[in-house]
Amino acid sequence: MVMSEFNYHQPVLLEEVLSFLPLKKKLVYVDMTLGRAGHASAILSNLSKGSVFYGFDKDVQAIQYSKKKLSQFEKKVDLNFVQSPYSTAIDFLKNSGLNGADFILFDIGVSSPQFDDPQRGFSYRYDSFLDMRMNQDQELTAYKVINTYTEEQLNHVFRDLGQCENYHRVVKAILETREKKPIETTYQLVDIIKSNLPAYELKKTGHPAKQFFLGIRYEVNGEIDELHMGLNKAVSFLNPGGRIVIITFNSEEDRIVKKIFQSVS
User: Cβ contacts of residue 156 below 8 Å, gap of 6+?
Assistant: First the structure.
């Protein structure tokens, strides 16, 4: 098990999630975003013997940690762990001979252990290498986005993914800065962002780099496409009477989820 001070994770909306869980039934439970198994641990505690569990996560550290944490349930539940993005999870389940699920959970976004670990490069709170990969085996990093993307591509990352309003000067400054030397760290990028935003933006509540970092993270991890593909497939995989519970953290994710649910209602 990979142990560090960053493995602790307090699951959000736990009571609300549990309120949708059918009790005293054998279930096929699929956790699409396993993380450090905060939700999974509580849910497995409430499942009947003979239930089946599949936990998916891109992050190998999350898989390794969760296998150990959830081993206490191995005599009660058929435990399965898969390092995979949730966009391909349903394909994996079908290929494994599973015909449907009774309870599917999505906890969208970066997990707190990833966010709180300075070495992962997700946060503007720490000075670290520009990484932001959920799957540390993949090639695309925040560093590559910032140092190799064209002006048009950077505009897309900040305008469309990050929904930044004042991004043009920031993009120009990134292009000019990297001509002299690579932009390697989160603090270097934060300084560029702060130096090229209008004064009224800097006075707003919240960190001025928040939306810029969100756009980069979405690009690195393909999160918007993941959400579209993963949720659409999951909806069609539910058993009769099955439930999907999904936790989102911003208006863009919420809009996508509502649109998909409305399309099948």
Answer: none
Compute CA distances 180 → 84, 112, 177, 194, whole Å. Answer: 38, 34, 6, 19
- Residue 19: what are its φ and ψ, rounded to 5°? -65, -20
Decide if 49 contacts 22 (C-beta within 8 A).
no
Strand ranges (E), the chain = 28-31, 51-57, 77-83, 101-107, 238-247
DSSP codes of every residue in 5-50: TT-----TTHHHHHHTSPPSS--EEEESS-TTSHHHHHHHHTSPTT
pLDDT in tens, 20-42: 998 778 999 999 999 999 999 99
Contact 153, 184 (CB under 8 A): no
From edge to edge, which strands make up the β-sheet containing 51-57?
A: 77-83, 51-57, 28-31, 101-107, 238-247
Are the beta carbons of 183 and 192 closer than 8 angstroms? yes
Phi, psi of 123 (to 5 degrees): -110, 145
Amino acid at 130: L
Identify any residues that bridge with 56 across adjacent strands, giving them in sequence order.
82
Residue type, 249: F
Q: Which two tokens stand for residue 159?
A: 């305008």
How far are the Cα atoms of 7, 8, 121, 182 from residue 113, in angstroms, in the given order? 5, 7, 12, 28
Three-state DSSP class for 111? coil
The answer to whether residues 129 and 147 touch, using CB atoms and an 8 Å cutoff, is no
CB 101 within 8 A of CB 238: yes
Q: Output helix, strand, coil percentages for the chain, rounded to the nearest 5.
A: 50, 15, 35
Q: Tens digit of pLDDT for each residue in 143-184?
A: 999 999 999 999 999 999 999 999 999 999 999 999 999 999
Helix axes 223-237, 251-264, angle to 10 degrees: 30
